[in-house]
Amino acid sequence: MACRRIVRKSKSVTSARKPVIVRKLSREWYAGYAAAALGQNAAELEILDQTGKVMRIGWDQVKWVCYVRDFPSLSQTADQANPERLMHKRFSVRPRAAGLWLRMTLADGDELEGLASNDLSLVQGTGLLLTPPDTRSNTQRIYVPRQAIQSLEVVSLIGAAARRRTGAATHETEPELFPRDQDAE
User: Fold this and answer.
1) pTM of the predicted model, to two decimals?
2) Quick one: which of 104, 120, 125, 135 has the most CB atoms within 10 Å?
């Protein structure tokens, strides 16, 4: 029993911080670990860089926060220019997953498309959490603060599979096309 409790605690500690790459509007970027909730209500983003130093960046300077699979290697120059490895910023075909297909222009003029969940997080909160067009790339999710969004367009609502109603419910609510004649019976 004691071993199980220790394992559970270690799992919760490892999931408390996620690897992220923070891109600023000035094109600078930082790699580190951010809290899973990002502290969006805070005045600034707090990340723990790879050396263990705590960095604070004002939300007004952040272009996006990319949740990544792994960090870029320092030896490859291509990774230094595009550490998120975000090759596709637009969908080439209609996405298959359910959600809102969004297209946005960011404050620095960059365009980005993504799939957002169709819930209250679209109108509440301090930013949008998107699934990028290429989910096989290094970037798994993108968080865009509202200050970084210049314009936002809903391209399409992609619904979940239609649910079938039960037979009893349809019979009660649908009127009869040919009502029975009481005199004929």
Assistant:
1) 0.74
2) 104
